Amino acid sequence: MEKYIRINPEDSVIVALSEIKTGDIVFIGGKSTQAVNNIPAGHKMAVCDIKAGDSVIKYGEPIGKAKCDIHAGEHVHVHNLATRLDETVSYTYEPVEEKKIPDHKDLADTFKGFRRKKGVGIRNEIWIVPTVGCVNNIATKIAEMARPFVKGSVDTVVAFPHPYGCSQMGGDQENTRTVLADLINHPNAGGVLVLGLGCENSNIDVLKPYLGDYDADRVKFLVAQQCEDEVSEALLVVKDLIEAASKDVRTEIPVSELIVGLKCGGSDGFSGITANPLVGSFSDRLVSKGGTTILTEVPEMFGAETLLMNRCKNKTLFEKTVKLINDFKDYFKSHGQTVYENPSPGNKAGGISTLEDKSLGCTQKSGTSAVCGVLAYGERVAEKGLNLLSAPGNDLVASTALAASGAHIVLFTTGRGTPFASPVPTVKISSNSALADHKSNWIDFNAGALLETSDKEALASKLYDYVIAVANGEYVSAEKAGYHDMAIFKQGVTL
Questions:
Q1: Topology (CATH) of 4-82
Q2: Would you state the CATH architecture of domain 125-247?
Q3: What is this structure's pTM?
Q4: pLDDT tens-place string over residues 423-453
């Protein structure tokens, strides 16, 4: 394995793939540079002198400006590198030529899923969705008591507790109702019990119009205040749902009907070199087959947003992307928060110095495809191809938003590791082999292998095959552990 990498020939820094020690010599562009400091794995070292105020280049793009003179061989990180971004930007549509994606004829064109009235699903689960946090414990208890009755093709019974549905104002309440309706209609569920309390703002009668033309055979309702024993009555309903769903069978479905969400969290210096570009290659492959991918976490587009804007298929989508970005900036500022202070302590420890550094790595999950759709929070995907979705960077909130928009699966890249799940199968992809070895109970796919092999195309095809296997019913690590999470984006006042 190489000890360092220069990602783009124009870069003024290299990334250490393993620790570079003081005095070590690296050879870049036909000349040698001696390390002035120890450079931890995943961190950056200057390969030329950089004057104070000048841009530092990585991925062929600026990731910040030098706070002081930086000499060749020095460690480049938060102590001498600052963001170049400010909060006021004027955007101009400068479309780039759409890249032709190769037709990977060797990859699967179909998967085996469940054909339902509300679309295609890849799981046959029974979901219990509370309308309000007051009945969370009841929902969880019902799910636990119902699991012994699972049979046939039913996978499991899952409750999705959340703290909302009442005492919310304006847009917050709309978010709750919209996302709950999205989940109730999600085709990964073979049956849904909507569990209400009765006196909440988002009670069942209020929620029903948000469901539209729901499948009345597979979506049932129960109001706890109207029952003498809500648990026993709910169990009878769930047993009926299990009985109906147990007869569902997987059928051959074109991969063009598969929808995959793209998300990252707990990144490190390798994320933009291994896991994120590998997921980008997967996205291109799925899009080339007529499928759909959704990229979210808008704050982690800041600094790389123009690359996405210029890949929009038309000016209307460009303008929607500008609004997507600016609305989130306004959201930050309205709460008195700095727009561009994003990398977490874990990100910084892993070698990420600025938001541009993280964003340029993060957006590589989108591959090279044109942007075909831009979605509001809670909006269901309608356009095939690559879509952008409005949601924050928070792992649980963003992954739930992807599921609510229709994703069957979420691909989650990480350099630090996390056990969380979402309402749909959440594939954890490690950026480095050490994490994959250390947390094999969390990690489903090791993109760190890219540091040990030059065959990115083969590994991307292997990831594609794995995603198809998950769509066919193979459980990911979080599912094996019995984890299912959901979180709704809270933006406003709680009464």
A1: 2.30.130
A2: 3-Layer(aba) Sandwich (3.40)
A3: 0.94
A4: 999 999 999 999 999 999 999 999 999 988 7
